[in-house]
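Appendix B, record 7
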Amino acid sequence: MEFEALEYEDDPDNDKPIYFLKKFITNELLDIIVNESNKYAVQSNLNDPLKITRAELKQFIGILFATSLMKMPSTRMYWSKEFYFNKVADLRPYEQLCIDEQIVPFKGKSNLKQYNPKKPKKWGYKLHVVSGTDGLVHNFEIYTGSIGTCPNQPDLKASGNIVLILLQNIPQNIWHKLYFDNWYTSLPLVKLLHTQGIACLGTLRSNRLLNCKMSPDKDMKKNGSGSVELWTADSDGVELRAIKWYDNRGVNWLPTYESINPFTEVEL
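Structure tokens (predicted):
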């Protein structure tokens, strides 16, 4: 399965990043910020009004974006006319994608607020996110307490449905490689993604490996750290591989495009 990038046609109406930014930061939102900022300045000090305009606010937001994305040793360097980047940069589609959950920290009042003691930020909004290897988010869904089915897709329960929802804007049949953890991974999901031309690899809970009797950890421990076990099966024309790798404990994997070979030894 070779990854094949799609060719996109230029659209003069929406081929600039600012087009997409304006979908989130609208003129209506900017006007609210301008009015409330000017109002607050007057309330704080009548003798020193702020009087900012929408154009000035846009410039300020642009500076915030620039300084957050381009790290410079000193503030003065941001105003330099010297170009610090290659004028011609490579543009390649990302073959590898990852789905995971993320907490947006928030301790205020909200029915959507979640608590997860295992996260560094325990309180906040829980998001399910699909992103590329550079960390750029391609799509996300805010968890509202329940997860419905994806339109025109079978019901794979909450963990599978959210994957299908996140992948609605991801091109099919060009063999993206998708990674996720054991909460998302299931046999029906992996099989469906394969039929849609999306390869995947995920860790897998033992109770989701039906009719696959992996060796228990105590038996694999006898073979030492790095021991591995492979089971294969053909399910409705999809070749499945269940892999168990043992280090300090056993970890199950369910890939549709990788196996245990080539197998090499390393010294630690």
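Remarks on this record: Residues 132 and 262 are 26 Å apart (CA to CA). The chain is about 25% helix and 25% strand.
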